[in-house]
Amino acid sequence: MAAMDDGARCPCGTGHTYGDCCGPLHRGAARAPTAEALMRSRFSAFAAGETAYLLATWHPRTRPADLGLDPDQRWLRLDVLATGAGGPFDDAGTVEFAAHYRRAGRRGTQRELSRFARVGGAWVYVDGEVSG
Fold first, then answer.
1. CATH topology of domain 18-130
2. Could you tell me which residue ranges the YchJ-like middle NTF2-like domain spans (predicted)?
3. pLDDT band at residue 1 using 50, 70 and 90 as cut-offs
């Protein structure tokens, strides 16, 4: 997976450029202010192959030792379906989403209800329930 161009549209679906959206988070220059912003940045990290960012934003209790991404899977679009809490003044939140991808010439969708927590002032992914 190639590095993202800062001028390209960010894969997370906000309509902003990568350099003005998820790029600064991936480079450690900013923190996600909400659980939804972290979810969007993690989707972009999957799309860009940013495994270090994915591991760094995973709760220490549930984080895998390593993460191997499927090089044949291309993440295409993220639809945020619902959020629960996860705001700037919350310590926990949820994000329900549909992540669209293509693998082996076929399109698919992964739906998940993800749980997030604030640890040391930063939002982290805890776990999720995949439904597709």
1. Nuclear Transport Factor 2; Chain: A, (3.10.450)
2. 34-128
3. low
